[in-house]
Amino acid sequence: MAEYFDVIIVGAGPAGSTAALKLARAGLKVVMLERGKHPGAKNMFGGLLHNTPVLNELLPSFWEKAPLERHVYQKILSFMTPDSAVSLTFENENFKRPPYNGYTVFRAVFDNWLASEAVKEGALLLCDCTAEDLIQKDGQVVGVTVKGREGELRGNIVIAADGVLSFMAKKAGLRGDFRNADMGVGIKLLMGLPEATINERFHLVRDEGADISFVGTTDGISGGSFLYTNRESISVGMVLHLESLKASGKAPYEVLNELLRHPYIKKLIKGAVPLEYSAHLIPEGGIRAMPKVYTGGMMLAGDAAGLCYTNGINLEGINLAMTSGALAAETAIEAIEAGDSSARMLSSYKKRLDDSFIIKDMKTFKNAIGMMRMERLFQTYPQILTGILEKVYSVEGVPRSKLLRLARKEALKKLGLKDLISDGFKIGRALL
Amino acid sequence: MNIEDLPQLTQFQIDEQPHIVLDKEICRSCDHRACVQSCPANCFTFNEETLLMSVVYETCLECGTCYVICDKGALDWSYPRGGYGVCYRLT
Q1: Residue A242's domain is classified under what CATH number?
Q2: Residues 366-405, chain A: which have Cβ within 8 Å of B?
Q3: In sequence order, what are the beta bridge partners of A282?
Q4: Residue from A112, A146, A185, A188 whose CB has the most chain B CBs within 10 Å, to mutate
Q5: What is the total count of domains within chain B?
Q6: Taking all residues of chain A, what is their mean pLDDT, rounded to a whole number?
Q7: Residue A36: closest CA among B59, B84, B78, B6
Q8: Is B87:A36 a contact under the CB 8 Å cutoff?
Q9: Which residues contact A365 (CB under 8 A, 6 or more apart)?
Q10: Tens digit of pLDDT for each residue in A303-342?
Q11: Residue A40 and residue B69: Cβ atoms within 8 Å?
Q12: Which residues in chain A (198-237) have CB-CB distances under 8 A to chain B?
Protein backbone atom coordinates (compact mmCIF):
# COMPACT_ATOMS: atom_id res chain seq x y z
CA MET A 1 0.00 0.00 0.00
CA ALA A 2 1.46 3.33 -0.96
CA GLU A 3 0.26 6.72 0.13
CA TYR A 4 0.95 9.63 -2.17
CA PHE A 5 2.37 12.98 -1.09
CA ASP A 6 3.46 16.14 -2.81
CA VAL A 7 6.65 16.20 -0.75
CA ILE A 8 8.28 13.61 1.53
CA ILE A 9 10.80 15.01 3.98
CA VAL A 10 13.32 12.66 5.55
CA GLY A 11 14.28 14.03 8.98
CA ALA A 12 12.32 16.40 11.19
CA GLY A 13 15.35 18.45 12.25
CA PRO A 14 15.67 22.22 11.69
CA ALA A 15 16.04 21.88 7.89
CA GLY A 16 13.21 19.37 7.48
CA SER A 17 10.74 21.15 9.74
CA THR A 18 11.39 24.55 8.17
CA ALA A 19 10.74 23.04 4.74
CA ALA A 20 7.60 21.26 6.02
CA LEU A 21 6.24 24.43 7.59
CA LYS A 22 6.63 26.39 4.38
CA LEU A 23 5.21 23.62 2.17
CA ALA A 24 2.21 22.95 4.41
CA ARG A 25 1.44 26.66 4.52
CA ALA A 26 1.42 26.66 0.70
CA GLY A 27 -1.30 24.01 0.88
CA LEU A 28 0.81 21.06 -0.22
CA LYS A 29 0.45 17.53 1.12
CA VAL A 30 3.67 17.00 3.04
CA VAL A 31 4.97 14.27 5.37
CA MET A 32 8.02 14.24 7.65
CA LEU A 33 9.73 10.96 8.56
CA GLU A 34 11.54 11.11 11.89
CA ARG A 35 13.59 8.20 13.20
CA GLY A 36 13.48 9.38 16.83
CA LYS A 37 10.64 8.94 19.29
CA HIS A 38 10.10 12.66 18.78
CA PRO A 39 11.89 15.30 16.70
CA GLY A 40 15.19 16.19 18.34
CA ALA A 41 15.56 12.87 20.18
CA LYS A 42 18.53 12.01 17.94
CA ASN A 43 19.93 15.50 17.57
CA MET A 44 22.74 17.25 19.34
CA PHE A 45 24.81 20.37 18.82
CA GLY A 46 27.02 22.59 20.92
CA GLY A 47 24.18 24.72 22.00
CA LEU A 48 23.85 27.89 19.97
CA LEU A 49 20.87 28.64 17.71
CA HIS A 50 22.02 31.59 15.62
CA ASN A 51 19.69 34.38 14.73
CA THR A 52 18.05 33.15 11.51
CA PRO A 53 15.98 35.72 9.57
CA VAL A 54 14.10 32.95 7.74
CA LEU A 55 12.76 31.66 11.05
CA ASN A 56 11.52 35.11 11.93
CA GLU A 57 9.86 35.45 8.52
CA LEU A 58 7.98 32.17 8.96
CA LEU A 59 7.23 32.58 12.66
CA PRO A 60 7.38 36.31 13.48
CA SER A 61 8.77 37.09 16.94
CA PHE A 62 9.54 33.38 17.36
CA TRP A 63 11.68 34.19 20.41
CA GLU A 64 8.49 34.93 22.34
CA LYS A 65 7.09 31.44 21.62
CA ALA A 66 10.01 29.10 21.02
CA PRO A 67 11.47 27.09 23.91
CA LEU A 68 14.76 28.99 24.18
CA GLU A 69 17.15 28.80 27.10
CA ARG A 70 19.03 32.13 27.08
CA HIS A 71 19.91 34.75 24.48
CA VAL A 72 23.64 35.04 24.09
CA TYR A 73 24.91 38.39 25.20
CA GLN A 74 28.48 37.61 26.12
CA LYS A 75 31.04 36.13 23.71
CA ILE A 76 34.38 35.02 25.10
CA LEU A 77 37.33 33.61 23.15
CA SER A 78 39.99 31.97 25.32
CA PHE A 79 43.41 30.72 24.32
CA MET A 80 44.54 28.14 26.82
CA THR A 81 47.55 26.13 27.86
CA PRO A 82 47.39 23.58 30.67
CA ASP A 83 48.15 26.25 33.27
CA SER A 84 47.11 29.57 31.79
CA ALA A 85 44.40 31.33 29.81
CA VAL A 86 44.21 34.48 27.68
CA SER A 87 40.66 35.64 27.07
CA LEU A 88 38.94 38.21 24.92
CA THR A 89 35.47 39.17 26.13
CA PHE A 90 32.96 40.88 23.89
CA GLU A 91 29.76 42.30 25.30
CA ASN A 92 27.39 44.29 23.18
CA GLU A 93 24.18 46.04 24.21
CA ASN A 94 22.73 45.31 20.74
CA PHE A 95 22.84 41.59 21.53
CA LYS A 96 20.41 42.26 24.40
CA ARG A 97 17.55 43.36 22.16
CA PRO A 98 15.15 41.35 19.96
CA PRO A 99 15.63 39.60 17.60
CA TYR A 100 18.82 38.92 19.59
CA ASN A 101 21.96 37.47 17.99
CA GLY A 102 21.63 33.87 19.13
CA TYR A 103 20.11 31.65 21.78
CA THR A 104 21.13 28.57 23.67
CA VAL A 105 18.58 25.80 23.12
CA PHE A 106 18.10 22.11 23.80
CA ARG A 107 17.66 20.29 20.52
CA ALA A 108 15.35 17.64 21.97
CA VAL A 109 13.05 20.51 22.93
CA PHE A 110 13.57 23.08 20.15
CA ASP A 111 13.40 20.61 17.23
CA ASN A 112 10.23 19.15 18.71
CA TRP A 113 8.68 22.62 18.91
CA LEU A 114 9.65 23.57 15.34
CA ALA A 115 8.18 20.31 13.98
CA SER A 116 4.99 20.93 15.95
CA GLU A 117 4.67 24.35 14.25
CA ALA A 118 4.81 22.54 10.89
CA VAL A 119 2.18 20.06 12.09
CA LYS A 120 -0.07 22.99 13.10
CA GLU A 121 0.09 24.14 9.47
CA GLY A 122 -1.02 20.74 8.26
CA ALA A 123 2.18 18.73 7.77
CA LEU A 124 2.03 15.07 8.75
CA LEU A 125 4.72 13.91 11.19
CA LEU A 126 5.58 10.21 11.40
CA CYS A 127 7.92 9.47 14.31
CA ASP A 128 9.70 6.15 14.96
CA CYS A 129 10.36 5.89 11.21
CA THR A 130 13.90 5.35 9.91
CA ALA A 131 14.06 5.86 6.15
CA GLU A 132 15.76 2.85 4.66
CA ASP A 133 15.91 3.28 0.92
CA LEU A 134 14.84 5.44 -1.97
CA ILE A 135 12.40 4.24 -4.58
CA GLN A 136 13.64 5.28 -8.00
CA LYS A 137 12.01 5.07 -11.38
CA ASP A 138 13.60 6.07 -14.69
CA GLY A 139 16.42 7.86 -12.84
CA GLN A 140 13.95 9.89 -10.80
CA VAL A 141 13.40 9.59 -7.03
CA VAL A 142 9.73 8.77 -6.44
CA GLY A 143 9.52 7.60 -2.83
CA VAL A 144 11.02 6.20 0.35
CA THR A 145 10.85 2.89 2.22
CA VAL A 146 10.93 2.65 6.01
CA LYS A 147 13.16 0.27 7.98
CA GLY A 148 11.31 -2.63 9.55
CA ARG A 149 7.94 -1.53 8.16
CA GLU A 150 5.75 -2.79 5.38
CA GLY A 151 4.69 -0.39 2.68
CA GLU A 152 6.26 2.70 1.28
CA LEU A 153 5.71 6.41 0.83
CA ARG A 154 5.50 7.85 -2.63
CA GLY A 155 5.61 11.46 -3.69
CA ASN A 156 6.59 14.02 -6.30
CA ILE A 157 9.64 15.25 -4.42
CA VAL A 158 11.82 13.95 -1.59
CA ILE A 159 13.72 16.47 0.55
CA ALA A 160 16.52 14.60 2.31
CA ALA A 161 17.23 16.43 5.56
CA ASP A 162 18.56 13.28 7.17
CA GLY A 163 21.63 14.83 8.71
CA VAL A 164 25.39 14.67 8.37
CA LEU A 165 25.45 10.95 7.53
CA SER A 166 22.91 11.28 4.75
CA PHE A 167 22.37 7.75 3.56
CA MET A 168 19.64 9.13 1.32
CA ALA A 169 22.19 11.32 -0.50
CA LYS A 170 24.45 8.32 -0.89
CA LYS A 171 21.68 6.09 -2.22
CA ALA A 172 20.71 8.77 -4.72
CA GLY A 173 24.31 8.87 -5.95
CA LEU A 174 24.66 12.51 -4.91
CA ARG A 175 27.76 11.84 -2.82
CA GLY A 176 30.57 9.36 -2.34
CA ASP A 177 31.81 7.82 0.89
CA PHE A 178 31.95 9.85 4.10
CA ARG A 179 35.57 10.84 4.79
CA ASN A 180 37.50 11.43 8.02
CA ALA A 181 39.03 14.52 6.51
CA ASP A 182 35.60 16.16 6.10
CA MET A 183 34.22 15.39 9.55
CA GLY A 184 34.51 16.54 13.13
CA VAL A 185 32.98 14.80 16.10
CA GLY A 186 31.24 16.92 18.71
CA ILE A 187 30.88 15.63 22.23
CA LYS A 188 29.15 17.35 25.07
CA LEU A 189 28.36 16.98 28.72
CA LEU A 190 25.29 18.82 29.94
CA MET A 191 25.55 19.74 33.62
CA GLY A 192 22.94 21.07 35.96
CA LEU A 193 23.65 24.22 37.97
CA PRO A 194 21.16 26.52 39.74
CA GLU A 195 20.05 29.56 37.74
CA ALA A 196 21.23 32.01 40.40
CA THR A 197 24.68 30.39 40.49
CA ILE A 198 25.00 30.66 36.70
CA ASN A 199 23.99 34.31 36.73
CA GLU A 200 26.41 35.17 39.46
CA ARG A 201 29.30 33.10 38.13
CA PHE A 202 29.07 34.33 34.53
CA HIS A 203 27.93 37.91 35.35
CA LEU A 204 24.56 37.48 33.66
CA VAL A 205 21.17 39.00 34.34
CA ARG A 206 17.84 37.19 33.77
CA ASP A 207 17.82 35.56 30.30
CA GLU A 208 21.30 36.65 29.28
CA GLY A 209 23.67 33.90 28.26
CA ALA A 210 27.38 33.38 27.70
CA ASP A 211 29.17 31.63 24.83
CA ILE A 212 32.77 30.75 25.60
CA SER A 213 35.10 29.20 23.01
CA PHE A 214 38.40 27.69 24.04
CA VAL A 215 41.41 27.14 21.80
CA GLY A 216 44.24 24.96 23.07
CA THR A 217 42.24 22.55 25.22
CA THR A 218 42.08 19.65 22.81
CA ASP A 219 45.43 18.07 23.69
CA GLY A 220 46.98 19.05 20.38
CA ILE A 221 44.09 17.63 18.31
CA SER A 222 42.63 20.00 15.69
CA GLY A 223 39.44 21.34 17.16
CA GLY A 224 38.05 23.52 19.87
CA SER A 225 36.04 23.45 23.05
CA PHE A 226 32.99 25.36 24.20
CA LEU A 227 30.90 26.28 27.18
CA TYR A 228 27.35 27.59 26.85
CA THR A 229 25.03 28.68 29.60
CA ASN A 230 21.46 27.40 29.56
CA ARG A 231 18.83 28.51 32.05
CA GLU A 232 19.64 25.97 34.75
CA SER A 233 22.50 24.06 33.18
CA ILE A 234 25.73 24.52 31.30
CA SER A 235 26.90 22.69 28.19
CA VAL A 236 30.60 21.87 28.06
CA GLY A 237 32.05 20.06 25.11
CA MET A 238 34.40 20.04 22.16
CA VAL A 239 34.68 19.40 18.46
CA LEU A 240 37.56 17.20 17.31
CA HIS A 241 38.61 16.78 13.71
CA LEU A 242 38.33 13.05 12.92
CA GLU A 243 41.59 12.65 11.04
CA SER A 244 43.49 14.39 13.81
CA LEU A 245 41.63 12.43 16.51
CA LYS A 246 42.47 9.16 14.79
CA ALA A 247 46.16 10.13 14.53
CA SER A 248 46.27 11.12 18.22
CA GLY A 249 45.12 7.68 19.43
CA LYS A 250 43.19 9.42 22.21
CA ALA A 251 39.65 8.81 23.43
CA PRO A 252 37.36 11.85 23.02
CA TYR A 253 35.89 11.59 26.52
CA GLU A 254 39.40 11.55 28.02
CA VAL A 255 40.21 14.80 26.22
CA LEU A 256 36.90 16.19 27.54
CA ASN A 257 37.79 15.09 31.06
CA GLU A 258 41.10 16.95 30.78
CA LEU A 259 39.14 20.06 29.85
CA LEU A 260 36.85 19.60 32.85
CA ARG A 261 39.94 19.38 35.10
CA HIS A 262 41.56 22.53 33.69
CA PRO A 263 41.91 25.05 36.56
CA TYR A 264 40.09 27.78 34.60
CA ILE A 265 37.14 25.50 33.71
CA LYS A 266 37.02 23.84 37.11
CA LYS A 267 35.99 27.14 38.69
CA LEU A 268 33.23 27.60 36.13
CA ILE A 269 31.68 24.16 36.58
CA LYS A 270 32.13 23.85 40.34
CA GLY A 271 29.14 22.08 41.89
CA ALA A 272 27.59 21.20 38.50
CA VAL A 273 25.90 17.81 38.23
CA PRO A 274 26.20 15.73 35.01
CA LEU A 275 22.78 15.41 33.32
CA GLU A 276 23.32 14.04 29.83
CA TYR A 277 26.23 13.07 27.57
CA SER A 278 25.92 13.22 23.80
CA ALA A 279 27.91 12.98 20.57
CA HIS A 280 27.34 13.83 16.92
CA LEU A 281 29.32 14.28 13.71
CA ILE A 282 29.67 17.67 12.02
CA PRO A 283 30.26 18.18 8.28
CA GLU A 284 33.45 20.24 8.46
CA GLY A 285 34.74 19.79 4.94
CA GLY A 286 33.44 23.14 3.72
CA ILE A 287 32.35 23.95 0.20
CA ARG A 288 34.82 21.60 -1.48
CA ALA A 289 33.31 18.60 0.35
CA MET A 290 29.69 19.43 -0.52
CA PRO A 291 27.68 16.78 -2.33
CA LYS A 292 25.58 17.56 -5.37
CA VAL A 293 22.42 18.99 -3.79
CA TYR A 294 19.71 17.87 -6.21
CA THR A 295 18.73 15.17 -8.66
CA GLY A 296 15.47 14.25 -10.35
CA GLY A 297 12.78 14.25 -7.64
CA MET A 298 15.13 14.99 -4.77
CA MET A 299 16.94 17.81 -2.95
CA LEU A 300 19.32 17.81 0.03
CA ALA A 301 19.06 20.31 2.89
CA GLY A 302 21.01 21.11 6.05
CA ASP A 303 23.85 18.86 7.21
CA ALA A 304 22.87 16.31 4.55
CA ALA A 305 23.97 18.90 1.98
CA GLY A 306 27.18 19.58 3.93
CA LEU A 307 26.00 23.10 4.77
CA CYS A 308 28.20 24.10 7.66
CA TYR A 309 31.24 26.25 8.00
CA THR A 310 33.78 27.23 10.55
CA ASN A 311 36.54 29.79 10.36
CA GLY A 312 37.80 29.36 13.89
CA ILE A 313 35.65 32.20 15.20
CA ASN A 314 32.21 31.42 13.75
CA LEU A 315 30.75 27.92 13.62
CA GLU A 316 27.44 27.92 11.80
CA GLY A 317 25.17 25.11 10.71
CA ILE A 318 21.69 25.29 12.18
CA ASN A 319 20.95 28.66 10.56
CA LEU A 320 22.21 27.37 7.22
CA ALA A 321 20.03 24.28 7.69
CA MET A 322 16.82 26.22 8.29
CA THR A 323 17.56 28.62 5.44
CA SER A 324 18.30 25.76 3.02
CA GLY A 325 15.08 24.01 4.13
CA ALA A 326 13.12 27.13 3.22
CA LEU A 327 14.89 27.40 -0.16
CA ALA A 328 14.23 23.71 -0.93
CA ALA A 329 10.56 24.29 -0.07
CA GLU A 330 10.37 27.32 -2.40
CA THR A 331 11.84 25.21 -5.18
CA ALA A 332 9.42 22.35 -4.48
CA ILE A 333 6.40 24.67 -4.55
CA GLU A 334 7.48 26.02 -7.93
CA ALA A 335 8.16 22.52 -9.27
CA ILE A 336 4.82 21.13 -8.15
CA GLU A 337 2.95 24.09 -9.63
CA ALA A 338 4.73 23.44 -12.91
CA GLY A 339 4.07 19.70 -12.63
CA ASP A 340 7.76 19.06 -13.21
CA SER A 341 10.15 17.62 -10.61
CA SER A 342 12.96 16.75 -12.99
CA ALA A 343 16.60 17.48 -12.18
CA ARG A 344 16.48 20.42 -14.59
CA MET A 345 13.55 21.94 -12.73
CA LEU A 346 15.13 21.37 -9.30
CA SER A 347 18.46 22.87 -10.41
CA SER A 348 17.00 26.24 -9.37
CA TYR A 349 17.53 25.08 -5.77
CA LYS A 350 21.28 25.17 -6.36
CA LYS A 351 20.95 28.67 -7.77
CA ARG A 352 18.91 29.78 -4.73
CA LEU A 353 21.62 28.42 -2.41
CA ASP A 354 24.35 30.12 -4.45
CA ASP A 355 22.55 33.46 -4.25
CA SER A 356 21.99 33.21 -0.48
CA PHE A 357 24.41 33.98 2.34
CA ILE A 358 24.92 30.23 2.76
CA ILE A 359 27.13 29.53 -0.23
CA LYS A 360 28.54 33.07 -0.19
CA ASP A 361 29.84 32.60 3.38
CA MET A 362 31.08 29.11 2.64
CA LYS A 363 33.03 30.52 -0.31
CA THR A 364 34.38 33.46 1.70
CA PHE A 365 35.87 31.08 4.26
CA LYS A 366 36.82 28.23 1.95
CA ASN A 367 40.49 28.59 2.90
CA ALA A 368 39.69 28.38 6.61
CA ILE A 369 39.55 24.59 6.23
CA GLY A 370 43.32 24.54 5.63
CA MET A 371 43.88 26.76 8.66
CA MET A 372 41.69 24.58 10.86
CA ARG A 373 43.80 21.55 9.98
CA MET A 374 46.95 23.24 11.31
CA GLU A 375 47.55 21.39 14.55
CA ARG A 376 49.98 24.11 15.74
CA LEU A 377 47.04 26.49 15.97
CA PHE A 378 45.56 24.37 18.74
CA GLN A 379 48.64 23.99 20.93
CA THR A 380 51.73 25.93 19.92
CA TYR A 381 50.10 29.31 19.30
CA PRO A 382 48.16 29.37 22.59
CA GLN A 383 51.51 28.56 24.26
CA ILE A 384 53.25 31.43 22.48
CA LEU A 385 50.45 33.85 23.34
CA THR A 386 50.32 32.95 27.02
CA GLY A 387 54.13 32.93 27.10
CA ILE A 388 54.23 36.52 25.85
CA LEU A 389 51.64 37.69 28.39
CA GLU A 390 53.39 35.89 31.22
CA LYS A 391 56.55 37.84 30.37
CA VAL A 392 54.58 41.07 30.06
CA TYR A 393 52.92 40.72 33.45
CA SER A 394 55.65 39.00 35.50
CA VAL A 395 57.62 41.32 37.75
CA GLU A 396 60.95 39.66 38.40
CA GLY A 397 63.47 42.42 38.96
CA VAL A 398 65.14 41.82 35.60
CA PRO A 399 65.26 44.27 32.67
CA ARG A 400 62.27 44.09 30.31
CA SER A 401 62.14 43.86 26.51
CA LYS A 402 59.83 45.82 24.26
CA LEU A 403 56.76 43.94 23.06
CA LEU A 404 57.82 43.06 19.52
CA ARG A 405 61.21 41.74 20.59
CA LEU A 406 59.54 39.74 23.36
CA ALA A 407 56.97 38.29 20.97
CA ARG A 408 59.62 37.35 18.43
CA LYS A 409 61.69 35.64 21.11
CA GLU A 410 58.72 33.67 22.49
CA ALA A 411 57.58 32.62 19.03
CA LEU A 412 61.02 31.49 17.90
CA LYS A 413 61.36 29.40 21.07
CA LYS A 414 58.55 27.21 19.76
CA LEU A 415 58.76 27.52 16.00
CA GLY A 416 61.16 28.16 13.13
CA LEU A 417 60.85 31.36 11.13
CA LYS A 418 59.75 29.34 8.09
CA ASP A 419 56.85 27.75 10.00
CA LEU A 420 55.80 31.13 11.34
CA ILE A 421 55.70 32.68 7.90
CA SER A 422 53.84 29.73 6.37
CA ASP A 423 51.27 29.67 9.20
CA GLY A 424 50.84 33.42 9.01
CA PHE A 425 50.15 33.06 5.31
CA LYS A 426 47.53 30.33 5.93
CA ILE A 427 45.76 32.32 8.64
CA GLY A 428 45.85 35.41 6.46
CA ARG A 429 44.33 33.55 3.51
CA ALA A 430 41.62 32.12 5.74
CA LEU A 431 40.50 35.21 7.58
CA LEU A 432 41.89 38.43 6.13
CA MET B 1 32.81 12.31 33.91
CA ASN B 2 33.22 8.57 34.00
CA ILE B 3 32.29 7.08 30.63
CA GLU B 4 31.13 3.95 32.47
CA ASP B 5 28.24 6.08 33.80
CA LEU B 6 26.89 6.64 30.26
CA PRO B 7 23.86 4.34 30.66
CA GLN B 8 22.82 6.37 33.73
CA LEU B 9 23.36 9.71 32.02
CA THR B 10 21.80 9.21 28.63
CA GLN B 11 18.59 7.35 27.77
CA PHE B 12 18.53 4.38 25.39
CA GLN B 13 15.70 2.30 23.98
CA ILE B 14 17.47 -0.97 23.30
CA ASP B 15 16.58 -2.93 20.18
CA GLU B 16 17.25 -6.66 20.12
CA GLN B 17 18.49 -6.18 16.56
CA PRO B 18 22.01 -4.70 16.53
CA HIS B 19 22.52 -1.77 14.18
CA ILE B 20 26.29 -2.29 14.09
CA VAL B 21 27.64 -5.62 12.88
CA LEU B 22 31.38 -6.32 12.78
CA ASP B 23 33.37 -8.49 10.45
CA LYS B 24 35.65 -9.80 13.20
CA GLU B 25 38.08 -11.33 10.74
CA ILE B 26 38.81 -7.91 9.28
CA CYS B 27 39.16 -6.39 12.78
CA ARG B 28 41.60 -9.12 13.77
CA SER B 29 44.06 -8.05 11.08
CA CYS B 30 43.40 -4.30 11.34
CA ASP B 31 46.57 -2.25 11.82
CA HIS B 32 45.04 0.67 13.76
CA ARG B 33 41.71 -0.31 15.38
CA ALA B 34 40.99 3.41 15.62
CA CYS B 35 37.35 2.66 16.44
CA VAL B 36 38.36 1.48 19.92
CA GLN B 37 39.94 4.81 20.89
CA SER B 38 37.79 7.17 18.84
CA CYS B 39 34.31 6.05 19.85
CA PRO B 40 32.90 8.79 22.12
CA ALA B 41 30.81 6.18 23.94
CA ASN B 42 33.59 3.61 24.41
CA CYS B 43 31.52 0.94 22.63
CA PHE B 44 34.41 -1.03 21.10
CA THR B 45 36.75 -3.44 22.90
CA PHE B 46 39.55 -5.46 21.39
CA ASN B 47 40.60 -8.50 23.36
CA GLU B 48 44.35 -8.86 22.93
CA GLU B 49 44.29 -12.53 23.96
CA THR B 50 41.49 -13.82 21.79
CA LEU B 51 42.13 -11.16 19.10
CA LEU B 52 38.40 -10.55 18.94
CA MET B 53 36.74 -7.17 18.51
CA SER B 54 33.41 -6.65 20.18
CA VAL B 55 30.92 -3.80 20.14
CA VAL B 56 28.30 -2.81 22.71
CA TYR B 57 25.72 -1.34 20.34
CA GLU B 58 23.28 -0.83 23.23
CA THR B 59 24.98 2.40 24.40
CA CYS B 60 25.84 3.69 20.94
CA LEU B 61 25.19 7.44 20.53
CA GLU B 62 24.72 6.91 16.76
CA CYS B 63 27.29 9.56 15.90
CA GLY B 64 28.91 7.44 13.19
CA THR B 65 32.54 8.15 14.16
CA CYS B 66 33.43 4.44 13.94
CA TYR B 67 31.73 4.09 10.57
CA VAL B 68 33.64 7.03 9.09
CA ILE B 69 36.96 6.23 10.76
CA CYS B 70 37.00 2.54 9.74
CA ASP B 71 38.85 2.32 6.43
CA LYS B 72 38.75 -1.49 6.23
CA GLY B 73 35.06 -1.92 5.54
CA ALA B 74 34.62 -3.98 8.72
CA LEU B 75 31.47 -2.25 9.87
CA ASP B 76 27.95 -2.84 8.70
CA TRP B 77 26.51 0.32 10.22
CA SER B 78 23.00 1.69 9.89
CA TYR B 79 20.61 3.76 11.96
CA PRO B 80 18.52 1.69 14.39
CA ARG B 81 14.90 0.95 13.56
CA GLY B 82 12.58 3.88 14.27
CA GLY B 83 12.12 4.64 17.95
CA TYR B 84 15.10 2.56 19.07
CA GLY B 85 18.57 3.62 20.10
CA VAL B 86 19.66 6.79 21.85
CA CYS B 87 16.88 9.08 23.01
CA TYR B 88 18.08 12.52 24.13
CA ARG B 89 15.89 14.29 26.66
CA LEU B 90 17.68 17.66 26.58
CA THR B 91 21.06 18.34 24.98
Answers
A1: 3.30.9.90
A2: none
A3: A184
A4: A185
A5: 1
A6: 95
A7: B84
A8: yes
A9: A286, A309, A310, A311, A430, A431
A10: 999 999 988 888 899 999 999 999 999 999 999 999 999 9
A11: no
A12: 233, 235
Question: Do the Cβ atoms of B20 and B31 come closer than 8 Å?
Answer: no
The shortest C-alpha distance from B62 to chain A (Å) reads: 7
Name the residue facing A253 among B34, B42, B85 (closest C-beta). Answer: B42
Closest CA to B62 of B91, B45, B84: B84
Show the domain range for A314: 2-68+105-176+291-355
Judge if ipTM > 0.85.
yes
Do A297 and A409 lie in a common domain? no
Whether B71 is covered by a domain: the verdict is: yes
Q: How many domains is chain A partitioned into structurally?
A: 3
Instruction: Check B91 against A44: CB less than 8 A apart.
Output: yes
For residue range A71-120, list pLDDT tens digits in order.
Answer: 999 999 999 999 899 999 999 888 888 889 999 999 999 999 999 999 99
| pLDDT tens sequence across B2-12 | 999 999 999 99
Does residue A163 share a domain with residue A117? yes
pTM: 0.95
Total residues found in chain B within this entry: 91
Which of A306, A324, A355 lies at the terminal end of a domain, its last residue?
A: A355
Q: For residue A406, how many C-alpha atoms fall within 13 Å in the half-sphere facing its CB?
A: 15
Cβ–Cβ of B38/A35 closer than 8 Å? no
Domain boundary among A232, A253, A283: A283
Q: How far is CA A3 from the centre of its chain?
A: 34
R_g of chain A, CA atoms, integer Å: 23
User: For residue B5, is it within any domain?
Assistant: no
